[in-house]
Amino acid sequence: MPKPIYEQRSKQTEYIKDCSFKPENFINPDFLEKSEKNLPHIGEVDIARHFTELSKEIYGVDDGIYPLGSCTMKYNPKITEKIAASANFTETHPYLDVKDMQASLRVMYETEKMLAEISGMAGVTLSPCAGAHGEYTGLLIINKYHQMKGEGNRKKVIIPDTAHGTNPASCSCAGMQTIQIKTDEFGNIDLVELEKNIDDETAAFMLTNPSTLGFFEENILEIAKIVHSKGALLYYDGANLNPLLGISRPGDMGFDVMHFNLHKTFATPHGGGGPGSGPVGVKEFLKDFLPYPLIEKVDGKYLLKEYPNSVGRVRSFYANFPVILKTYFYILMLGRDGLKKIGETSIWNANYLLDKVKNIFEYPFGDKSCLHEFVVTARNFKNKGIRALDIAKRMIDYGIHPPTIYFPLIVEEAMMFEPTETESKESIGHLVDVLEKIKAEIENNPEIVKSAPQDRKVGRLDELKAIKSKEFIWS
Asked: Domain 338-463 carries which CATH code?
């Protein structure tokens, strides 16, 4: 009879201990345990139950609505997960000769072409491994373009005050200076501010459209005209691409460079530190600057190519390939009409939810409709001593993940909701019911909201102590 699994593992552990590859040869001894730990021998069924119990404490899109604004935390089809795990792809190796990886190269090549068509760009690289990495790569391309023109002095990048936090961070990493400009009272880019701040040292204007407020930029064509007239480029932050799918294309709006968030828009689960993928698309005049390797089809064969003025390699291998696989099959499954339905439904869902929550929160933008997301303010509850944070914590008690709070910074006590295109009317209705219950609690028993969450294993933490205390406990 074979020995139990835990005994087999124990024997393997003893073997490793006897090996010459000792941990202290590779790890700083200060980080190693000084004594043996008396770990229990546990059966497989107990281990399974332990981790299953832990999984119940984690909230994800399979549990319920996850309305984090500007993050597109939507349900992703399980079929794409199954495809990405197929041995036909997972058992290949990126260092294989190109003749032995034609199927993988074909997937990447056709994904590049589809993303280019969807976005209105001429060329796409799949290399960047996250949205912020895509921003960084796009800025490297912009910088190289200006240098090749003899305008290496262009180091300023303009961003709006509603920009995602990665925008200024990426600029800093790329050695550029960030210039922030204000939006007007309607959430649009202030053209006067833009013209005042753009000059012959401006490299680019980074913009997401629709904005983090959920509004389509009404003056986008005029913005593109102003930016290009000054010799700068227009960069598209693709985090909010969902509502544009099949309806409008960044390339047609005048954007020169953009990144995609495949883990937001095209069927890869988002969160937990990954997996991410941030392909970059460019107009024709920038294709030579794309990072290598790029894939080309010659006489029916797929080859790897490097353009002469490439910014170089920006990551190992070719791309986050499993994410590319999910994107490829997701687009093929949906087709042109399906992608358009995504765009339309994300807009319908957001406006339906906005109409409902206007009776609960204050909406700072009057009767203005939104696209895929919207921002309300909880400042109407300040007279009860309630903050957006308190409402978010109370939502946890009702089994719903809170929305994004305190972003964008220009809205006081901001709460940003994004229901995405995958939530049903019933799911959105449940969210509204919970928010109405919390509103009633604020009116009648505000203390229960102030001290939330009430029934979680971890209650309200001391935020001030958490910020000031630098003590870490390893278990």
From this structure: 3.90.1150.10
